[in-house]
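User: quick one
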Amino acid sequence: GIQVEQSPPDLILQEGANSTLRCNFSDSVNNLQWFHQNPWGQLINLFYIPSGTKQNGRLSATTVATERYSLLYISSSQTTDSGVYFCAVATGNQFYFGTGTSLTVIP
Amino acid sequence: DAGVTQSPTHLIKTRGQQVTLRCSPKSGHDTVSWYQQALGQGPQFIFQYYEEEERQRGNFPDRFSGHQFPNYSSELNVNALLLGDSALYLCASSFPGGYNEQFFGPGTRLTVL
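Assistant: Done. Structure below.
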């Protein structure tokens, strides 16, 4: 199966700081999604981005499919951004998740 | 627009028992996938159902089985529970095809004692 690596594994930020999370994957994919998992376990869709660049408020994402990586940018971070961020890719009908980046935003 | 729903929220079982988890997909979706998420790990794909058939399966033993009903809802069954089956079980729904966006339910937290 496809290997998905996320970095950094842990990140601690002061409120208001910016950050970049990275997702590398080992093979061609037909889907890539970024999720935020809240403390109760709910996976919240952030971006569906198999290629290109998208923005949603303070968050944006870029996927360079030919180079097999995706980046998630968080600007002006808030304490509510804390949680685990997952990248997931699909080939065929199967999704593969990375091990996540645990983000803590301190006031 | 109803999102993906799962029941029950929490479940406690003992080793050797059997469990059934349930999932209703987002309105308009006909494909359901199940995932197991152990503590501190990313979700692992168990299998996907479409048109009431198991379309793809991850690396899980036959103790894990499923079913999809004509209304697209789905069940995950786990037999002969092991301590290692303790995890958060997530259901996702989508339109057919892995290239389509998946939406997840809130999960069922299973504890095996």
